Amino acid sequence: MATDPYGQWMGTPMDEGDIDDLLRSAGWGVLSLAADDEPYSIPVSTGYDGEDVYFVFIRDSPTNTKFEFAGDGETARVLVTDVAGRFDWQSIAVTGTLRPVAPDSDEWATLMDALTDNAWFSPDFERAEGIREFQGWRLVPDEVRGLEVSDR
Q: Are 118 and 48 in contact (CB under 8 A)?
């Protein structure tokens, strides 16, 4: 079997176990959305339950662009990375469909558990003063791709 001569720079495919480990441990990623051909990317604290990626939007001012771009059934991508050095990194792109998670639904507990277990998130945000709106979201993966350059 030939070795990819560019793998040391471009990365080689990650196995499912390593992808799962990074999605559980990273705790954050960059969420990319688009509306009318206008891109929008923001860092988000992420939780992962072994299937779906969870995150919340917190509105603390009258206008927040993220609320305008996200919608039920929209396509989104979360990029999760762990970069220790030029030749020691992992990168995972999770592309899928956004689904809202209502605070009064059974799924809300799953969202809160996933965020509490492995996100840079505190459930206290739900009750913090100054929070005008708190929206839960689930990204249902259609495609998960991971690349790495690592001796892990």
A: yes
Other beta carbons within 10 angstroms of residue 45's beta carbon come to: 19
Count the neighbouring beta carbons within 10 Å of the beta carbon of residue 132: 10
Q: Which residue has the tokens 């249902």?
A: 140
Segment 88-97, tens digit of pLDDT? 999 999 999 9
Structural domains in the chain, CATH included, are 16-149 (2.30.110.10)
* Residue 52 tokens, joined: 């779906």
Name the amino acid, one letter, at 22. Answer: L
Give the pTM. Answer: 0.85
- At 105-125, the pLDDT tens digits run 999 899 989 988 887 766 655
Contact yes or no for 94/53 (Cβ under 8 A): yes
Q: Find, among 59, 55, 56, the residue nearest to 132 by Cα.
A: 59
